[in-house]
Amino acid sequence: MARKIVFTGGKGGVGKTTVCANVAASLAKKGARVLVCDADFGLNNVDVVCGVESKAAYDVVDVIEGRCRAKQALVRHPDFPTLYILPSNRSSPERYVSPQALKVVLDGLESGFDFVFIDSPDGLEEGFHRACVCADEAIVVTTPHITALRDADKAVALLKSYALKSIVLAVNRVRGDWVLSGECLTPEEIGKLLSLPLIGVIPDEDRLAIGEFYGGGKPFGLLASNLYSNKKRLYDPTKKYQGFFGAVRRLIRKSI
Ligand SMILES: Nc1ncnc2c1ncn2[C@@H]1O[C@H](COP(=O)(O)OP(=O)(O)OP(=O)(O)O)[C@@H](O)[C@H]1O
Ligand SMILES: [Mg+2]
């Protein structure tokens, strides 16, 4: 049976989809069979982030309404042969998808995978609930910004009402120069604040800001390993800002 993990966080735009897709690619790179289900039925974009939007023939609604079998709706990633994407309702965006209907689809698919990742929409309402009922574990994604932290805290409180085996934290968009100058909380401090084990630190990266999919990049690779290893290794976003050249980098970043 697959490990079913929801990527959630409350606040919009904190990088749930980016982290979910890239960690999935990192695991697939190591040979794991990974399904990414787009459970964002409003502003769905897992297929776009993974660069497979033109390859999708069917979606979840087609499966639920019997127009295709679940396996037919899966899109295999061209660069990662064990990575599959299940698009949300792209063909009929107005159609309501019940939490139970989505759960039935994912339960039917899980035997073919090691991991089923569920990309949750923003907010803590219906879409959040639909994504959470399908999962056994949760990864809360937040940025160090205060508004994101407040929403993450609310998300954690709600997640505790689901029968989840674990709730862990990934801090995204960390600026190493700001951490060093004390202008933002460290990922470890954020973990303590939210009382969650920290399993991933992702730096703020220009390549990610333009939506580039860099599956297998080091920070995502470490997070992926932390999902199945007891030894937790975290990416250090401050490293490139230390020492003489690091100080130069910090000055340059401050001036732009
Ligand atoms: N580490 C990062 N560095 C720079 N930009 C990032 C990073 N992570 C995400 N982004 C950018 O932030 C924006 C929002 O990311 P993303 O869509 O993954 O967030 P989300 O939480 O899934 O949003 P939504 O709540 O709308 O689903 C995108 O433009 C993405 O490219
Ligand atoms: Mg998203």
Report on this structure.
- The chain is of the alpha/beta class and 256 residues long.
- It has a single domain (3-255), classed as Rossmann fold.
- Helix content is 39%, strand content 17%.
- It contains twelve helices and eight strands.
- The protein has helices at residues 16-29, 46-49, 60-64, 70-73, 99-109, 126-133, 146-159, 176-180, 187-194, 206-209, 218-228, 243-255, and strands spanning 3-8, 34-38, 75-76, 83-86, 115-119, 137-142, 166-174, 198-203.
- It has an eight-stranded mixed β-sheet, with helices on both faces.
- The radius of gyration is 18 Å and the shape is globular.
- Adenosine-5'-triphosphate binds at residues 12-18, 40, 43, 121-122, 172-173, 202, 204-205, 208-209, 211.
Keywords:
256 residues; alpha/beta; Rossmann fold; 8-stranded mixed beta sheet; 8 strands; 39% helix; binds adenosine-5'-triphosphate; binds magnesium ion
Please specify the SSE layout and strand pairing:
Blueprint: E1 3-8, H1 16-29, E2 34-38, H2 46-49, H3 60-64, H4 70-73, E3 75-76, E4 83-86, H5 99-109, E5 115-119, H6 126-133, E6 137-142, H7 146-159, E7 166-174, H8 176-180, H9 187-194, E8 198-203, H10 206-209, H11 218-228, H12 243-255
Parallel strand pairs: 1-5, 1-6, 2-4, 2-5, 6-7, 7-8
Antiparallel strand pairs: 3-4
The protein binds adenosine-5'-triphosphate and magnesium ion.
